[in-house]
Amino acid sequence: MTAKILVMPGDGVGPEICREAVRVLDALASDHGLDIELDEALVGGAAIDAEGDPLPEASLAAAREADAVLFGAIGGPAWDEQPRDKRPESGLLRLRSELGLFANLRPAILYPQLAHVSALKPEIVAGLDIMIVRELTGGIYFGKPSGLHTTASGRREAYNTMRYDEAEIDRIGRAAFDTARARSGRLCSVDKANVLDVSQLWRDVMNGLAGDYPDVELTHMYVDNAAMQLVRAPKQFDTVVTGNLFGDILSDAAAMLTGSIGMLPSASMDAAGKGLYEPVHGSAPDIAGQGVANPLAIILSVAMMLRYTLGRADLAAKVENAVGYALDRGLRTRDIMDDETQMASTQEMGGAIVDMLR
Ligand code: IPM
Ligand code: MG
Fold first, then answer.
1. Angle of helix 313-328 relative to helix 14-32, nearest 10 degrees?
2. Where along the sequence does the record put site: Important for catalysis (predicted)?
């Protein structure tokens, strides 16, 4: 059956990296029998400019129709002053929520070829392979009440609510236990149970699940300690599960351990295996349009799509091997370059991956 893939390029470097990812998909279709149909839709600032809405109805409808979404990046200074519902970020948050993409998988893998690009000593990060499972459609990002108003005394007051019910914790917990089981069997749940009631519930539900997964070793860590441990001794982690806000913060920290956020893919999954695949890096407006953005994060996101939604682990491995081989050959975009390597443009890097796949 032909799989429908919706490409949402968005803003900043989004369009230029999506172009390379599409070349990779085209190569897989023409040379390796991948049966896909591509469509494209507006999102983020591009959609605000064209239609006054960061997630127009037509884009949401197309995303619902699709089997998988390939997402570039959104946001930029042009839209930062807009009211919250008219900001690019709101489009992405609505898309996650409307599609029920509750399980966000963010791997942080260090390519041996890039060990010296990390801000940490090579021996601390060599062999790093962490999977952060972030809850993506609940918690303080979506909890009600939230708002900003002026109190009777004339002072402005703003508030958000960190809220989870046990069913939401249970489903992300199961996704994380399954992920850990398929890896090394170690799962660390990160919370702030020493202070927050919502974290105490989180911890109770995770402990309850442990009985169903006797083969997975569950540990708990407070989020402040987890932030410290990630930069002190990151290799102690295998699979990490945490809520929306903590996961947002910890996944950026974990990303930087690998040398470049420009290398990291992500998957946001619903309960049925549909996913939105996007690079972890954002729209990087400062380098947009210059042809220097690293397309490997989105190309590796295509690999995740092949594995998790399209059932083509064989092709996922081909794409990942091509990325490894490009690095072996010394190909580097600006973010991962060093004195010994020559700079490749976004297009040259994409082209190299395509050549290897053909
Ligand atoms: C991320 C981003 C988003 C988030 C923003 C763009 C809304 O930082 O995917 O991590 O906070 O989730
Ligand atoms: Mg983030």
1. 120
2. 141, 192
113: how many CB neighbours lie within 10 A of its CB? 18
Annotated binding residue 106: yes
Domain count, the chain: 2
Q: Is 236 a member of any domain?
A: yes
How many angstroms does the Cα of residue 248 sit away from the middle of ligand 1? Answer: 7
Mean pLDDT of 220-249: 98
pTM, whole model, 2 decimals? 0.95
Whether the pLDDT of residue 215 is over 90: the answer is yes
Closest CA to 98 of 64, 74, 58, 124: 64
76 and 150 inside one domain = no
Closest CA to 130 of 38, 298, 252: 252
pLDDT over 90, % of the chain? 92
Q: Is 92 in the pocket of ligand 1 (CB under 6 A)?
A: yes
Domain range enclosing 311: 1-116+258-358
| 133 and 252 fall within a common domain | yes
**What confidence tier does 339 reach under pLDDT thresholds 50, 70, 90?**
confident
Contacts of 303 (CB under 8 A, 6+ apart): 265, 315, 316, 317, 319, 320, 323
- From 232, 256, 280, the end of a domain falls on 256
Do 36 and 155 reside in the same domain of the chain? no
Q: Are residues 264 and 239 in the same domain?
A: no
Extended beta strands in 20-165, E state: 36-40, 68-73, 103-109, 129-135, 147-150, 156-159
Tens of pLDDT, residues 115-158? 888 889 999 999 999 999 999 999 999 999 999 999 999 999 99
Which of 8, 85, 92 should be mutated for ligand 1, with most atoms under 8 A from CB?
92
Beta carbon of 132 within 6 Å of any ligand 1 atom: no
- With 90 as the cut, is the pLDDT of residue 34 above it? yes
User: Looking at residue 117, what is its pLDDT?
Assistant: 85
Cα of 136 to ligand 2 centre, how many Å? Answer: 11
User: Ligand 2 centre and the CA of 156: distance in Å?
Assistant: 27
Nearest residue to 310 (alpha-carbon basis) of 55, 1, 59: 1
Q: With a cut of 90, say whether residue 175 has pLDDT above it.
A: yes
Last residue of one domain, picked from the residues 195, 225, 256: 256
Number of Cβ atoms within 10 Å of the Cβ of 153: 6
